[in-house]
């Protein structure tokens, strides 16, 4: 990443030194110079500036007044012979404060701070991952019942309704097996028969084409068998 820099300083010697330092650092490039803040304001409207090296003591408008007067400024590094203004500068969120005369090494450290800040700001903001709800609601016997996914053992399809077998109770719901399957998390719930969906976390053992879910035993359909076995055992079946 390259930072486009603007120098604002009324002293030609100071501008020349800053330009030489900028030329020495590969991630900095000089976009422009100004001998006072008024000219700098025009340049900011014309140039793409990432970082300003700003002197404080200048005629007509000093650096601190400039900071207070301009909205949406790029990053700023103060450069001045007067250390007493450091607190004022940091209160206005400058990146760093260089007291003249400063070495190339000290200048580089300040520039690296600006680069790190630019990189941090350029990172996309990642929205927090949406967490799946731990339960769902169904209508049963005129009431809306909450069902915890972890409590649902299996689903059985009847004529025009399904029965939800949960740990605390059995619920008869007017839904199709296809309709309920579309609402259940595919990672944990698997259709094993045209009439059954099981919670794979509840499977204790497999005997032939029979799934043992505690006190319940569910038959795997012939057309479902291979796919169901693959999904249940994949990566979890240890054998000689």
Q: How would you describe the shape?
A: elongated
Briefly note the CATH topology name of the largest domain: Rossmann fold
Mean pLDDT: 88
Query: How many domains would you count in the coordinates?
Result: 2
CATH class of the largest domain: Alpha Beta
What is the beta-strand fraction? 25-35%
Q: What profile does the largest beta sheet have?
A: 5 strands, parallel
Low-pLDDT residue intervals, each spanning 5 or more residues: none
Question: Helix proportion of residues, in percent?
Answer: 25-40%
Record the strand order, biggest sheet.
2-1-3-4-5
* Separation, N- and C-terminal Cα atoms: 54 Å
| The CATH superfamily title of the largest domain | Response regulator
What is the ordering of alpha helices and beta strands? EHEHEHEHEHEEEEEHEEEEEH
Which CATH architecture of the largest domain would you pick? Answer: 3-Layer(aba) Sandwich
- Strand tally is 15
Cα Rg: 35 Å
Instruction: Supply the number of helical segments.
Output: 7
Based on helices, strands and strand pairing, what is the structural class?
Answer: alpha/beta
Task: Describe the structure in your own words.
- With 240 residues, the protein is of the alpha/beta class.
- The chain has 2 domains: 3-122, Response regulator (Rossmann fold), CATH 3.40.50.2300; 135-233, OB fold (Dihydrolipoamide Acetyltransferase, E2P) (Beta Barrel), CATH 2.40.50.1020.
- The protein is built from 7 helices and 15 strands.
- The chain has helices at residues 12-24, 37-46, 63-69, 86-91, 104-122, 177-183, 225-233, and strands at 3-8, 28-34, 51-54, 75-80, 96-99, 135-140, 143-148, 152-157, 162-166, 170-173, 189-193, 196-199, 205-207, 210-213, 216-219.
- A 5-stranded parallel beta sheet has the order 2-1-3-4-5. It has a 5-stranded antiparallel beta sheet with strand order 10-9-8-12-11, covered by helices on one side.
- Strand 3, helix 3 (63-69) and strand 4 form a beta-alpha-beta unit.
- The chain is elongated, with a radius of gyration of 35 Å.
- The model has no long low-confidence stretch (mean pLDDT 88).
């Amino acid at each position: 990443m390259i930072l486009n820099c603007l120098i604002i300083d009324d002293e030609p010697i100071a501008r020349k030194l800053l330009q030489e330092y900028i030329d020495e650092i590969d991630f900095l490039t000089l976009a422009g110079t100004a001998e006072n803040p008024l000219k700098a304001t025009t340049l900011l409207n014309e140039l793409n500036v990432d970082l300003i090296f700003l002197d404080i003591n200048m005629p007509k408008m000093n650096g601190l007044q400039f900071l207070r007067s301009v909205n949406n400024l790029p990053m700023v590094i103060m450069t001045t012979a007067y250390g007493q203004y450091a607190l004022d500068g940091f209160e206005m969120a400058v990146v760093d404060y260089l007291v003249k005369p400063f070495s190339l090494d000290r200048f580089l450290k300040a520039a690296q701070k600006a680069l790190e800040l630019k990189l941090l700001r350029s990172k996309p903001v990642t929205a927090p991952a949406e967490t799946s709800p731990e339960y769902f609601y169904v209508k049963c016997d005129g009431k809306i019942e909450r069902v915890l996914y972890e409590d649902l053992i299996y689903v059985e399809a009847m004529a025009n309704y399904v029965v939800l077998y949960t740990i605390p109770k059995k619920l008869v719901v007017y839904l199709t097996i296809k309709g309920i399957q579309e609402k259940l998390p595919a990672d944990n719930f698997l259709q094993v028969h045209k009439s059954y969906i099981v919670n794979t976390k509840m499977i204790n053992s497999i005997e032939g084409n029979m799934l043992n879910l505690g006190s319940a035993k569910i038959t795997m359909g012939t057309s479902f068998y291979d796919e169901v076995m693959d999904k249940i055992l994949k990566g979890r079946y240890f054998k000689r």
